[in-house]
Specification:
The protein is mainly beta. It has no helices and eight strands. Strands 1, 2, 4, 5, 6 and 7 form a six-stranded antiparallel beta sheet that branches. The chain has a two-stranded antiparallel sheet with strand order 3-8. A hairpin with a 2-residue loop joins strand 4 and strand 5. It is globular, with a radius of gyration of 13 Å. The protein starts with 7 loop residues before the first strand and ends with a strand.
């Protein structure tokens, strides 16, 4: 059974409409499954992860990025210790599975 952990996050920059956060997770760690009210961009800066959506999985390695659409359930699994930059609207709201 997978263990879900909240990633370590740090606010890097905040503007009038956007926030930029750094997130970190250790190899094998699953982040909470969730969806968001707005689309966002995830850029992997170290390591690797798998982004799981309902019908697909995308492996992301250093330098890769993905736009995560709004209202799409997704979950990230670190396959190597990773750090990513998450760019999102300040108005974004998250809904997590129970």
């Amino acid at each position: 059974m997978e263990t879900v952990k909240i990633p370590k996050t740090k606010l890097l920059e905040e503007g009038a409409k956007l926030s930029v956060k750094q997130m970190e997770a250790l190899s094998g760690q699953f982040l909470p499954k969730h969806k968001a009210s707005e689309e966002s961009v995830l850029v992997v800066i170290e390591g690797a992860c798998v982004l799981k959506k309902a019908e697909s999985e995308h492996t992301l390695e250093q330098g890769d990025n993905v736009i995560i659409p709004s209202d799409v359930w997704h979950q990230i699994k670190a396959i190597r210790d990773f750090k990513a930059i998450h760019v999102m609207p300040k108005a974004i709201r998250f809904e997590f599975t129970k």
